[in-house]
Every structure is written in structure tokens, then in C-alpha cells.
């Protein structure tokens, strides 16, 4: 029994969509990690601008990335990713990402 040609198009679309989602999620995770690392550096380094302003700006950026991420993985998963990334980087002595 032959499969319908449309079925292959649908399967190809799902594979492509999955790859797009994975790519977008990875890019957003990287941006969140970058913001967390910068935030940690602001906590321990010298800054011309007040540390509070720097950290507030970083948190706002992370919030925006979390909103974008939630469109791909859902709100709870986006919150989990952001929290775990923040927790890992802030608690790591050298402040490095995963």
C-alpha cells in the first residue's frame, strides 16, 4: 500500500518546524546565558553606571527573551530555563555558562 504524497509533505514540514524550534530555543538560551554572565560580572566588577541599573537592564532583557522563548516551549518551560540558567551562572564561581 502506497502512502499518500501529501503525507510526505506533512512529515517534511514537521521535521523542518522541529529544527526551527530547536534552533530558536538554542539561540534564546544563549542570549539568556549571555545576560546572566554579564549580570554576574556587574556584581563583582567595577562599573561607571550603578550596578543596580546594569542588573535591572539585564533582567529586562532576560524577561523579553523569556517571553519569546515561551512562544516556542510554553510559559512554564521558559520560566524553568531562565531560572536554571540564572541559578547555574550566578552560583558558579567563574560565572561561566553550561
Please give the radius of gyration in angstroms.
Answer: 19 Å
Number of helices: 3
Query: What about the largest sheet?
Result: none
Mean pLDDT: 82
Class by helix and strand content? mainly alpha
Report the portion of residues in β strands. under 5%
> What helical percentage do the residues reach?
over 70%
Uncertain runs: none
The ordered string of helix (H) and strand (E) elements is HHH
Give me the count of strands: 0
Distance between the termini: 48 Å
Name the overall outline.
elongated
Secondary structure topology:
Blueprint: H1 5-44, H2 51-73, H3 75-91
Helix pairs in contact: 1-2, 1-3, 2-3
What does this structure look like?
- The chain is mainly α and 98 residues long.
- The protein is 82% helix and 0% strand.
- The chain contains three helices and no strands.
- The chain has helices at residues 5-44, 51-73, 75-91.
- The longest helix has 40 residues, at 5-44.
- It is elongated and about 65 Å long.
- It starts with a helix and ends in a 7-residue tail after the last helix.
Brief write-up:
This protein is an all-alpha fold and 98 residues long. The chain has 3 helices and no strands. Helix 1 packs antiparallel against helix 2, helix 1 packs parallel to helix 3 (75-91) and helix 2 runs antiparallel to helix 3 (75-91).
Identify the notable features of this structure and list them briefly.
about 100 residues, mainly alpha
Amino acid at each position: 500500500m502506497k502512502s499518500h504524497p501529501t503525507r510526505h509533505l506533512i512529515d517534511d514540514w514537521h521535521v523542518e518546524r522541529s529544527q526551527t524550534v530547536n534552533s530558536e530555543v538554542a539561540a534564546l538560551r544563549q542570549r539568556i546565558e549571555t545576560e546572566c554572565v554579564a549580570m554576574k560580572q556587574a556584581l563583582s566588577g567595577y562599573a561607571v553606571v550603578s550596578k543596580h541599573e546594569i542588573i535591572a537592564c539585564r533582567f529586562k532583557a532576560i524577561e523579553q527573551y523569556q517571553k519569546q522563548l515561551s512562544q516556542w516551549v510554553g510559559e512554564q518551560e521558559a520560566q524553568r530555563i531562565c531560572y536554571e540558567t540564572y541559578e547555574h551562572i550566578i552560583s558558579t564561581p567563574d560565572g561561566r555558562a553550561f
